[in-house]
Design brief:
The chain has about 350 residues and is of the alpha+beta class. It contains 8 helices and 16 strands. A hairpin with a 2-residue loop joins strand 15 (about 335-340) and strand 16. It starts with about 30 loop residues before the first helix and ends in a 14-residue tail after the last strand. It comes from Petrolisthes cinctipes (Flat porcelain crab). InterPro entries: DNA/RNA_pol_sf (IPR043502), Hepadnavirus_pol/RT (IPR052055), Rev_trsase/Diguanyl_cyclase (IPR043128), RT_dom (IPR000477).
Amino acid sequence: MLGRGFHWKWLKDSPPLLVPKFKNIHPQPDLDLEIQLLLLKAAIYEVPYQPCFISRIFLVPKSRGGNRLIIDLSSLDSHILAPYFLMHNHKSLVDTLHPPAWMSTIDLKDAYLHVPIRQCLHKYLAFSFGSKLYFFRALPFSLNVAPHIFTCILRWPLSLLHLQGINVIACLDDWVIWDTSHELTAKAVNTATSLLSNLGFLINIPKSHLPSSTDVEWLGIRWFPLLGRWALPEDKQMSIHKACSITKTSLTQAMGIFSWQTQLCHPNTTPQSTPATTTLVPQNSFKPLAPRRSEATASKLSQTPVTVATSQNVVNFPPFSTNQETRSTFGPMLPFQVGEVTLYLIRSHALGTRTSQPCT
C-alpha cells in the first residue's frame, strides 16, 4: 500500500470533477507560509489548470503556537466509506498499566504525511490559492479515513515492540511507554525510537517526553504511574472553572469539557492483566474520544445530575489502580465556586458506546 499509495473505497460513485474558478483574494501571509511549508515537505504539489474536486482551506492555531493548514473535506467525506475501528485512548492505559510504574511519551511529527495517496486520487484532494492549483499527494489530516488507515499502519511496529516485551500504546501519533523501573522504561524508549527512525518516522522532540518519569502528560491527562493516579492539567482545570456558571447553557459547556474523563473510571469496568507479548486491545469495544460533541450528546450532558454543596474540600480524582474497591462509583467530581455555594459536577454514567470493528 505504501508503495503504490493508499486508495480509499467509494460509497457509491465518485463525486463529479469541476473546472476550478480562481478568485482574486487579499494577501494572506500566514496561509501562504503554511502552503510553502507543505511544498517543502512534498505533501502537496502545484498542477496546471484542470478539472478536479476543489475544497476550501483554512488555518487552525496550534496549542503550542503556530498554525496548521486544514483542507475542508466534508463534502468529499460524504462519498468515502469510513469503517469503524478500535483505537486506544485514556481507558486503554487505565486497563493495562499497573502501578507502580514509570512512563515516557513519544510524539510523531507530521505523522499522516508519511502515508502517500494513490496517484489517481490526487485530483480529489485539490485546493486553490490565488491563481494556483495544488494537489495533495500525502494523507490529509481532515480525511475521514485518515485515523483508520494510520492506526492500521502502526499495528506492525507496535506488534514488534510487544514481542520484545515492551509496554506501549499508541493513539495515532501519541505514544506512551511504561515499565516497572526508570532503567527499563529508558531502555524501552530507546528501542522504540530506534525502530521508528529506521521506518522513516520523525520524532517530535519538543512535544515528546522521552526521559522516563512519574509525572507525565498524555492525551490531555496528567498521569502519576508510580502512585496509580491521574488528574487534569492546570490549564484544563482553569478552562472548566471559567466555563462554569449557574446557567444551564454554561453548565452544559463545562460538562462538555469535563465529561470525557468519566471513561477512565467506569464503575462496571475491571482492569485486566494483559501479557506484554500481545496486542494491547481492551476487552470491551469503544470508540475514540471525539473533540466535539453533537447536539444530542450536549443535550444528554445537560441532564447530568448536579449536586449543590457548601463544602470547600477538593475531591481527589479516582485512582486507576487494579484494586476494584478503590475505584469511585461515580465519575470524577470537581468543585466550582459560584457565589456562596460550591457546585460538584458528577457524571454517574459514561456515554453510550458504538460497536467497533478491528482493522483489516
